[in-house]
């Protein structure tokens, strides 16, 4: 299987929870360059909420200086 980790070149969000007894892990990357990672079920939920908020406010493109 291909690596599903998001990057600025391939933006998105990825959440993994391999079993009910292990903590979730999550990461996101946006085309603007912002990235974030989290470990733990609550932190993964917060990351998904942050990704949703970010995507609604971001153009997905890097700012030009």
From TrEMBL:
Annotated spans, Disordered: 1-20
Highest taxon listed in the record's lineage: Bacteria
Protein name per UniProt: Uncharacterized protein
Organism: Streptomyces angustmyceticus
């Amino acid at each position: 299987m291909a690596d599903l980790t998001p990057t600025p070149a391939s933006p998105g969000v990825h959440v993994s929870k391999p079993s009910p007894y292990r903590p979730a892990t999550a990461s996101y990357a946006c085309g603007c360059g912002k990235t974030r990672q989290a470990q733990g079920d609550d932190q993964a939920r917060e990351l998904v909420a942050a990704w949703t908020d970010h995507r609604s406010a971001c153009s997905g493109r890097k700012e030009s200086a």
